[in-house]
Amino acid sequence: MVDLLDPSNVITRMFNAAKYEDMYNYCKKLLEKTPNDMVALQNISLALIYLKKYDEVIVYCDQVLKIKHSDTYALKNKIYALESLKQYEQVLELCKQILSVNPKDIWTINSMGLSLNELDRHQEALECYDTTLLIDPTDVTALMNKAISLSHLGNYRHSIIYYDKAQTVDPTLKELSLAKSRLYEKLDMKDDAFLAAQGILNKDMEKIKNDAKENRCSVFHQFCEDEFKKINTE
Questions:
Q1: Whole-angstrom Cα distance, residue 86 to residue 115?
Q2: Structural contact between residues 73 and 99, judged by C-beta atoms closer than 8 angstroms
Q3: DSSP string spanning 144-180?
């Protein structure tokens, strides 16, 4: 039988109901009784993240880390707060601390890459995303941010490839097709830019362009024709 008055269950209900202020106040009362209550310390940090009180998040995370130096949950909450405060050098140090214990923590590797991007250290950021993709080749965060890093470095063609890979994994992310389209425009590839903006994957672009040549029409006309045929066959 579930104990509805158990602090963990009370906090979970508040969190699921998005009652972050209530969650904060409840944890605060728990800490007045027991200052080292780990459940309260961890969850008050979480509530404060949602309340966007990032300086306070760090204070409570530090209390946890005094008790348990390598607590991953507290370290990640602190990283999130520091990212929000644009303290990227400190983020890198905390990421290294987590990775010294778990070198395959994808969330942390990607966070390290994002901070390196913010510090304009895009080549180093690429190394982080490459490490993630060795662990999980379908990680959308790494694919997308590798594309962004490559774009910052002026390597537009390779950037397009990684946007396309990310789009293949998660076609619902509309910003990927738009980013890919903008890069095709920079390469003065107008037909590809148009098709990319419509959400067409790279592997499908050549057929549309070849069909347009055979039919002696524009790529735009061919795309519209193909779409019309799809609608009629549904």
A1: 9
A2: no
A3: HHHHHHHHHTT-HHHHHHHHHHHHHH-TT-HHHHHHH
Following DSSP, what letter does each residue of 179-203 receive, concatenated?
HHHHHHHHTT-HHHHHHHHTT--HH
Give the mean model confidence (pLDDT) for residues 160-188.
95
Residue 53, CA atoms < 13 Å, CB-side half-sphere: 14
* Amino acid of residue 78: K
Q: What are phi and psi of 84, to 5 degrees?
A: -65, -30
Choose among 152, 159, 158: nearest CA to 122.
152
The tokens for 161 are: 């490839």
- The CA distances from residue 104 to 92, 98, 109, 110, 178, in Å, are 16, 10, 8, 11, 31
For position 5, what pLDDT does the model report?
66
Tokens of 79: 């990283």
Is-contact 126 150, C-beta < 8 A? yes
Tokens of 180: 């890919």
* Gap between the Cα atoms of 84 and 66, Å rounded: 23
Q: What pTM, to 2 d.p., does this model score? A: 0.88
What amino acid occupies position 90? Q
| Residue tagged 């006309």 (tokens) | 221
Query: Is the pLDDT reported for residue 234 higher than 90?
Result: no
Q: Is 145 helix (H, G, I), strand (E, B) or coil?
A: helix
Residue type, 201: L
